[in-house]
Input
Amino acid sequence: MSSPTSRAGRRCHNALNPLHSTVYFSPDFTQQLAQLGIEDASAAYFAGRGAAMGAVGPGVVAAAFYNFNHELIARHLPAVWDTASPGAVLEARLRAVDSTLRRLLGDDVVASKELAEAAELALRAAEAGTRHARPLYAAHADLPVPEEPHLAYWHAATLLREHRGDAHLVALLSAELDPVEALVSHTATGKGMAPRWILATRGWRRADWEAAEGRLRERGLLDGEGELTEAGAGLRAELEEHTDRLDRAPYEHLGAEGVERLTELGRGFLMAAVNAGAFPADISGGKG
Output
């Protein structure tokens, strides 16, 4: 089982990760990438999140992102790099982060000592991240830390998000869940995205989803109603505990008091962003 530090790390991740992801739902991001000539939403996402790895092709992104259909990625990569370089995309992304956080949190919060404190704590935690077998974390760890506290906080949240995310892929492989099975089983926990969102953004078809449900039923992980069985719920719990163990170093390095404080601050910023409409209302839950 995961340790108290690991579970505290998961709670901290759950406070920081959603704020990291706000940029990818932001019209500011769409506008910044469109100004570079990248107008397709999928192309913008693949470029925006993958640019830290360089001008990579679809295979690298499929490996690092895990749950996207390679065919969808290949429609946009590597062609997107003929439109804008990875460096230009990273600069555009940071401009979008700046305007998004200012809009969601307000200039007073952006300039607050609390946000500066959170940035310092998150960066200290990220110091203990390890690069081996973590491509997205390693790529972002090679980027310079922005000077402004709100941008430094987002950068650190990105490092911590990708550090845990890369570890989670190891856990998924160990559990022998393919990309669609991972999505189906996560949605069945009630914490994942709604299937309509997944099918609209990940490049899979309804037939792929139903086939994955069938494979999970054959393994005794999903019942006929699409709910997790006891074995399925146990597997999803073990996945998170496995991820906790692989992701514990940043939070052990920060220490219990620092983790508690960073979680408290992060939750406050996240609630402000949610209340400001950071995410679509129908993105999560359900089986439809």
In short: The chain has a mean pLDDT of 96. The CA atoms of residues 168 and 243 lie 5 Å apart. The two ends are 33 Å apart (CA to CA). The chain is about 70% helix and 0% strand.
